[in-house]
């Protein structure tokens, strides 16, 4: 049977209405700018302020960098398509986008796991914190996260694009993602994808176990603290982190493990946004909204900018 090989893909359009497309571009542009400013601010603050040169902010800085890369891999292309009324993405562009999304998502899971370990040591073994969470250990955890993410990115991308794509080239998603791409293949063997999925599940499950065990010890230790105020402070620090991790892993699992729909589904689009768009936008708010150190560092920077402006006048 003859097939026409796919040389480019078409990303799903949210609407055929010109007005709705402009509103979509405006909304995604606003979300992207907010995420860009938030994550850039955290990166700069944790670099410039000496008081933020601790393991906790070391991981937070790299989490912000990952979030920045993740949202930059998906939203700008979607915004551009809405503005130019073009839905296409090249075969190579799709492969690169898929690689970056998988790499950033997988590395972020690793960083979130490292952050949970950091909170465990800080709360459960405070006297040994500086010894255990040394700079060398932090760098090792960071390297493991990046290497794991890069390996999974290469594995998933190679496995997906080793398949033959023919016939329809319309991806039912606003960016190139594995489940949506699998609906377009005419290949009958999925061994490489199955292996990739198995490795990805094992990686995510191992990280989840580390996080659950860490927070199990953390909550057990916190409940033994006699002071209600100290308990409240510890829970306010840990619960948002646990919420972020749970949402991130759950939506990722739903997107990759459930059968892909034959037609565009609003649920599929919402789920994909929860692991590709929402984390980069909400992570800075969740981790820094009630963080006194970040607020103090920001006020210092704004104060210095204001003072320098006055002096120039």
TrEMBL record:
Location(s) in or outside the cell: Cell membrane
Membrane topology classification: Multi-pass membrane protein
Recorded superkingdom: Eukaryota
Predominant localisation class: membrane
InterPro entries reported in the protein's UniProt record: GPCR_Rhodpsn, GPCR_Rhodpsn_7TM, Olfact_rcpt, Olfactory_GPCR
Entry keyword Transmembrane helix: yes
Pfam families found in the cross-reference section: 7tm_4 (PF13853)
Listed GO MF terms: G protein-coupled receptor activity; olfactory receptor activity
Keywords: Cell membrane, G-protein coupled receptor, Membrane, Olfaction, Receptor, Sensory transduction, Transducer, Transmembrane, Transmembrane helix
Record field: transmembrane: 20-46, 136-159, 197-218, 239-257, 269-289
Domain G-protein coupled receptors family 1 profile: 38-287
Gene Ontology cellular component terms for the protein in this record: plasma membrane
Keyword Transmembrane (UniProt): yes
Known role: Putative odorant or sperm cell receptor.
Family: Belongs to the G-protein coupled receptor 1 family.
Entry protein name: Olfactory receptor
Organismal lineage: Eukaryota, Metazoa, Chordata, Craniata, Vertebrata
């Amino acid at each position: 049977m003859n097939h026409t090989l796919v040389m480019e893909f078409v990303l799903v359009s949210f609407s055929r209405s010109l007005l709705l497309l402009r509103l979509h571009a405006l909304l995604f542009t606003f979300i992207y700018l907010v995420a860009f400013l938030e994550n850039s601010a955290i990166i700069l603050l944790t670099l410039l302020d000496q008081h933020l040169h601790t393991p906790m902010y070391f991981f937070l800085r790299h989490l912000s960098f990952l979030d920045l890369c993740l949202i930059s891999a998906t939203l700008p292309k979607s915004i551009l398509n809405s503005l130019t009324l073009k839905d296409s993405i090249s075969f190579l562009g799709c492969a690169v986008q898929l690689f970056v999304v998988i790499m950033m998502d997988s590395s972020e899971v690793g960083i979130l796991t490292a952050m949970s370990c950091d909170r465990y040591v800080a709360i459960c073994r405070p006297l040994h914190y500086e010894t255990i969470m040394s700079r060398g250990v932090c760098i090792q955890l960071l390297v493991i996260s990046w290497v794991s993410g890069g390996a999974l990115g290469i594995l998933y991308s190679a496995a997906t694009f080793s398949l033959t794509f023919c016939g329809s080239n319309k991806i039912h998603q606003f960016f190139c993602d594995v489940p949506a791409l699998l609906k377009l293949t005419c290949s009958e063997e999925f061994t490489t994808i199955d292996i990739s999925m198995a490795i990805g599940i094992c990686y995510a499950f191992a990280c989840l176990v580390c996080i659950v065990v860490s927070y199990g010890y953390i909550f057990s230790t916190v409940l033994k603290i006699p002071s209600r105020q100290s308990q409240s402070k510890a829970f306010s620090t840990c619960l948002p982190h646990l919420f972020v991790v749970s949402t991130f892993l759950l939506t990722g699992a739903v997107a990759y493990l459930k059968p892909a729909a034959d037609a565009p589904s609003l649920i599929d689009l919402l789920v994909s946004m929860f692991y590709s768009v929402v984390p980069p936008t909400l992570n800075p708010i969740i981790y820094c909204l009630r963080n006194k150190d970040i607020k103090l560092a920001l006020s210092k920077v704004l104060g210095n900018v204001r003072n320098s402006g006055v002096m120039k006048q």
